[in-house]
Write a structure and sequence with these properties.
This protein is mainly alpha-helical. The protein contains ten helices and five strands. The chain has helices spanning 10-34, 40-54, 71-78, 80-97, 106-131, 136-165, 172-204, 243-266, 278-286, 313-339, and strands spanning 58-61, 64-66, 219-223, 226-229, 352-355. The strands form two sheets. The chain has a three-stranded antiparallel sheet with strand order 4-3-5, with no helix packed on it. Strands 1-2 form a two-stranded antiparallel sheet. The longest helix has 33 residues, at 172-204. The radius of gyration is 21 Å and the shape is globular.
């Protein structure tokens, strides 16, 4: 659903740019509450994984494909504020390096794909977790439903933005019907990927999943007569892991996730559907793309997810995918490591510990 240059007029693009910048500023502050030394590396990995999986277009209807948006996945794994930053980093890398998503439309894409999907998905997820039975299965079910709804929500948001600032005279009703219809189908694919990924991480390290934090018994400390949340322990709820084993487990999870991302982007992406995605298909069918402009980075050495001057299509796409994953994990990790909340033993001086 990457919006190219020329779809949305300059004033509307500027307004969405301001909205996106404000949301990123708020998310940077919020991410400090969500991230610490343990979860900051996971956030960088989540961004790289989203980049990799977005290269895997899957068929959803005759002549149409879809791909992961990633807002639901990021919000559930690392928190809504960090999730907005994860998807924003991916969109920035794609726009600058791979000419995917217009640079003048970056605000539109961040508003639509990062903010809307993350906010809608996390709100739905938290609502379901509160009413479903407490357990890992409920986390997976809630992840599925949240992801399903986040994609048509993004389609609705794009339709509204196009209604306000579209550059062609097209019936907004027809655009809405086409966009929502195809993105409901894409949402099912998004939900499957999100639920499987969240379920896999929760099964291994639920303590690292932001959306699964309620599965653990909470500890509170009495500090100067007041109860405050205790810092999250390194151990699992049963206390079976030592800190050393926990660090090794985190390292294993990170390496496994990175290798998976590299394989997906560097090898599996070659077999992705070549059909246009939902927005591209609707744009072509309804005439939205009549004023589309060439991307400012069209001459980039990595434009269109291929390495310039590498003639073998499989090798060119694979190298581009690997470079993209590497660049995204480095950029994302740098951002999240910088904004993380530093964990120290001096955060509190407890006089008593109470189970609640």
């Amino acid at each position: 659903m990457h919006v190219p240059d020329g779809f949305i007029n300059a004033p509307t693009s500027a307004v969405t740019g301001v909205v996106a910048a404000g949301a990123i500023a708020v998310s940077l502050r919020g991410a400090r509450r969500e991230l610490d030394d343990r979860t900051a590396p996971l956030a960088g990995l989540v961004a790289a994984f989203i980049f990799a999986v977005q290269m895997l277009n899957f068929p959803v209807a005759a002549g149409t494909s879809g791909h992961l948006l990633g807002g639901a996945l990021a919000a559930i794994l690392v928190g809504p504020c960090t999730g907005v930053l994860c998807v924003s980093v991916v969109l920035l890398m794609q726009g600058i390096l791979f000419a995917d998503g217009g640079l003048t439309a970056l605000g539109v894409n961040i508003t639509d794909m990062a903010i809307v999907t993350t906010v809608v998905a996390y709100a739905v997820f938290r609502g379901l977790v509160k009413v479903l039975p407490r357990g890992r299965r409920s986390i997976t079910v809630a992840s599925f439903v949240a992801a399903v709804l986040s994609v048509p929500a993004a389609a609705v948001a794009f339709t509204l933005i196009y209604w306000i600032g579209g550059t062609t005279d097209v019936s907004i009703g027809k655009v809405a019907t086409a966009m929502i219809g195809v993105h409901v189908l894409i949402g099912i694919g998004e939900a499957v990927i999100t639920a499987l990924t969240v379920g896999a991480v929760v099964a291994v390290r639920p303590d690292l999943v932001h959306g699964a934090r309620d599965l653990r018994q909470k500890l509170r400390l009495r500090v100067h007569g007041e109860l405050v949340d205790a810092p999250a322990a390194e151990e699992t709820p049963a206390g079976a892991r030592t800190p050393v084993a926990a660090r090794a487990s985190r390292r294993t999870l990170w390496v496994t996730g990175l290798v998976t991302s590299l394989v997906l982007a560097g090898f599996v992406s070659f077999y992705a559907s070549a059909n246009p995605d939902g927005l591209e298909k609707v744009a072509a069918d309804k005439g939205i793309d009549k004023k589309a402009e060439e991307h400012a980075s069209a001459d980039s050495p990595l434009a269109d997810y291929g390495v310039k001057d590498v003639t073998n299509a499989r090798l060119s796409g694979g190298l581009a995918g690997v470079i993209g994953v590497g660049t995204t994990v480095v950029a994302g990790s740098a951002v999240f490591w910088a904004v993380r909340r530093r964990r120290t033993g001096d955060d509190v001086s407890p006089t008593a510990v109470e189970n609640v």
